[in-house]
Amino acid sequence: MKIIIICLMLMLFGCNAQPNTSNQPNTQNNSTTETINETVNQTIEEDEEKVFLLIEEQYYVNGILNDNLYFHYDDLGRLIAEDSYAGNLEYTYIGDTDKVRLMMSDWIIYSYEYDNLGRLKSMIGTYEEGEVYSETKYKYHGDLIIEEYSYYPFSNSTEIVSYKYEDGLLISKNYESIMNDTYDVYSSLEVYSYGGEIEKPATIEVYYLGYLLSNIYRHHYKNGLLIKKEIIDFDYDTGNLSYYSYLEYEYDEYGNLISEKYCYEGECFSEIKYIYEEFK
Q: What's phi and psi for 223, nearest 5 deg?
């Protein structure tokens, strides 16, 4: 049984329950969650005999515990709540399925609709007073998502995310954020390349405005699991290297992610520890 939760992860090391008022997409977070989605964003990890639930994330800076994020589940193993210092999230589902009907934060309520094939069709975010914060619609080609179209009434802005595939593998993702009043456009392009036998990206290149190289992410795997992610930042005005860092990942004997460390110049400054319990 696989339970897939929807987590709004807007910072590299945190999950903030407050709404993001910025309309610029966070490409670094997207690439991180995509490459380790089988161990972080899916809260139930399985092997042939055991099933595990992620029950806590611990956030350390320079070895000192700064924050905790707790996860709560129902009798079916479905995520029903997240609690942290930053805020809370609650989930309700459609019947006994794993499809989320509502996600409620301290600020916004998100409602989800699905098509006849069970694919996510739309997501609408509303404030507690009933005013619409955002509306997102999804388009597919078969089982592959090809477009997300979001509108934000308060800022009168639009976000469009377009996906392209080759032989079923994602090869590019394009972001556009448009301010409809001024026609200002922010855009970025992610280009994916693959290597080896696993169908996971080896390299992701990010281009500001679609053509100025700003980031390169290099992924290293062992036994199909991501163990290191290099982060190379460029000054897109000059093309010069501006910053190099990396993430290190550790797993338990069942393949559950148990540690994510952020490192720079050979020293790791922050870490997320993941705590599980067996679901019976």
A: 55, 35
105-147 per-position pLDDT tens digit:
988 999 999 999 999 999 999 998 899 999 999 999 999 999 9
Kindly give the residue spans of alpha helices, DSSP state H, lying in 18-111: 27-35
Cα dist. 219→31, 148, 235, 247 in Å? 10, 26, 21, 10
Q: Which residues contact 30 (CB under 8 A, 6 or more apart)?
A: 173, 190
Judge whether 205 and 213 are in contact, CB under 8 Å: yes
The one-letter amino acid at 69: L
Token representation of residue 274: 């993941």
Q: Distance between CA atoms of 214 and 205, rounded to whole angstroms?
A: 8
CA distance 26 to 122: 21
Report the b/e string of 247-276 with b at 16+ CB within 10 A.
Answer: bbbebeebebbebbbbbeeeebebbbbbeb
